[in-house]
Amino acid sequence: MAIKNKKIDLSVKFCGVNFENPFMLSSSPVSDCYEMCKNAFNAGWGGVVYKTLNLEKKFKVIMPSPRLNALHYDGKRVIGLQNVEQITDRNIKDNIKDIKRLKKEFPNKVLVSSIMGYSDEDWTELAALSEEAGADMIELNFSCPQMAREGAGHKVGQSYELMTEFTRATKKGTKLPVLAKMTPNITDMVPAAMAAKAGGADGISAINTVKAITAVDVNLLTPLPNISGNSSISGYSGAAVKPIALRFMAELARDKKLKLPISGMGGITTWIDAVEFILLGAGTLQVTTSIMRYGQRIVEDLKEGMLDYMIEKGFKSVSDMIGKALPTVVDPSVLPHKKQAFSVIDKDKCVGCGQCYISCMDGAHQAISLDKNRKAEVDEKKCVGCLMCYHVCPVDGAITYKYDKFNFKTH
Ligand SMILES: Cc1cc2nc3c(=O)[nH]c(=O)nc-3n(C[C@H](O)[C@H](O)[C@H](O)COP(=O)(O)O)c2cc1C
Hints:
Elements: E1 12-14, E2 17-19, E3 23-25, H1 34-43, E4 47-53, E5 68-73, E6 76-83, H2 92-105, E7 110-115, H3 120-133, E8 137-141, H4 154-157, H5 160-173, E9 178-181, H6 189-198, E10 203-206, E11 210-212, E12 216-217, E13 222-223, E14 234-237, H7 242-254, E15 262-265, H8 271-279, E16 282-287, H9 289-294, H10 298-313, H11 318-321, E17 339-345, H12 355-363, E18 368-370, E19 376-378, H13 388-392, E20 399-405
Parallel strand pairs: 3-4, 3-16, 4-7, 7-8, 8-9, 9-10, 10-15, 15-16
Antiparallel strand pairs: 1-2, 5-6, 6-14, 11-14, 12-13, 17-20, 18-19
Helix pairs in contact: 2-3, 3-5, 5-6, 8-10
The structure holds flavin mononucleotide.
């Protein structure tokens, strides 16, 4: 149950646009048509980024089938999702009609038009069409990793020149704020984001999907999804990519020259994920895979959890939270080396499963033994505080750690 506090809400201003809350559908099948976006608005999402539009003048989009494979791990379904989906296969007229209708019926919700052109003229035209349809912002898809058309998607996001050129071409067709959506399939996202900024981008969206192969069918000797005997390296999303997305958030947000608002995404499922993205610099948040997995109604938990957290921590607004964890993200070379940690076992809580013992013996520093009741014991002289035992322990609070000042152990 949400803690009641009438003084604060989740509204946020992003690139000059007012959001009733920072939660948006990201561009994908979840935002593919009028019905889905309408349902999302009614469910309480603050905005949608519509499925990527194109002009289909020279290139007809055909979706491979099947188009998804998923990573299931240790009893959990869909830890990560791989897709070979293209941008929209619906025609531009129908999509523009849907965007117009959505904006007419939901004037206070934010509608971001995601676009992909194949030439300067395409980007300019798509931007103008989006603005005329009533979109509030435009997102440039520089990042789809499995475009069937050569030279599009993440190939653009890997070319600084093309990003600058296509952003500039988009700005020719619109006065709306423009977000460049970045590929994580690049070593350093900051120079790529700077290239979009040079073309006039007002903000950055990150991340699109991570290039991956989720599995190989060892009977058929073919990676999955098996599309009539073939497969492709293609986009991976969901909870499994969150750590990669958070890394990019921090790198983009702490760069001293970039200084652009960031719409963050990649694996957001719970309100804690959402707060993490904001603390590392995101100003709004986007979600696809968790909606595909759990449905649009996750937004209720996202909103309620974030509001409760803000009240508990004394944050007065979403903007108040943006980037608050960034000052603690430092280069490994300047990490403080003042204290040595060591593990502490609560024998009353230890269930004697021996998992910490195995990990410490075979994968760490042989500091844990089992007593005659199979309860774990730590040899503080040997423990280096790596905390592998803490991470494998299945019992909350059975293993914690303490600091022992200025007593570093080296091997
Ligand atoms: C099936 C599928 C289709 C997608 N299609 C698009 C698209 O058309 N345009 C786009 O910019 N991103 C597309 N994405 C990427 C998502 O918008 C998002 O960047 C990515 O999935 C990471 O967020 P998530 O982990 O919440 O899914 C797609 C993702 C999936 C899973």
